[in-house]
Write a structure and sequence with these properties.
The protein is an all-alpha fold. It is about 55% helix and about 0% strand.
Length: about 130
């Protein structure tokens, strides 16, 4: 019985470590190096808010807090969190919006849908204003 408990604990530990490695592996070191070329000012924030409401709010909510308010599985994540699953730097957020995420996360590649880089950077600026302190 003791050997069984030890085996179960060992397997559980490996699963936890494996999930942690998987989550960390979803960050993009190349994207993290990208710098936002769009100044965060009144105009870019207003443009970013308009673009967010048009392209993002349908899934992530008008307040960017995601959740089960839609029929997505898994639900769209809260974008106001300090740490995001696919990276939290401006460059990582830009890359996720532009290129989407793996198919199991439902995030469309907005760059392929015609959303311009400048508009994506403005969305990033706007999301920064919503981030929880």
């Amino acid at each position: 019985m003791r050997a069984l408990v030890t085996s179960v604990v060992a397997v559980g530990f490996m699963l936890i470590v494996g999930l942690g490695v998987r989550a960390a592996a979803q960050r993009d070191p190349d994207a993290a190096k990208l710098q936002n070329p769009v100044a965060s000012n009144t105009d870019s924030l207003a443009d970013g808010k308009r673009a967010y409401q048009r392209f993002c709010a349908n899934c992530h909510g008008s307040n960017a807090q995601g959740g089960p308010g839609n029929d997505l599985t898994p639900p769209a994540p809260d974008l106001t969190l300090k740490e995001l699953k696919h990276g939290s730097t401006d460059g990582e957020i830009f890359t996720v919006i532009k290129n989407g995420t793996p198919p199991d996360f439902n995030m469309v590649a907005w760059g392929a849908q015609g959303l311009q880089d400048q508009d994506i950077w403005k969305i990033v600026n706007y999301l920064r204003t919503l981030a929880k302190k």
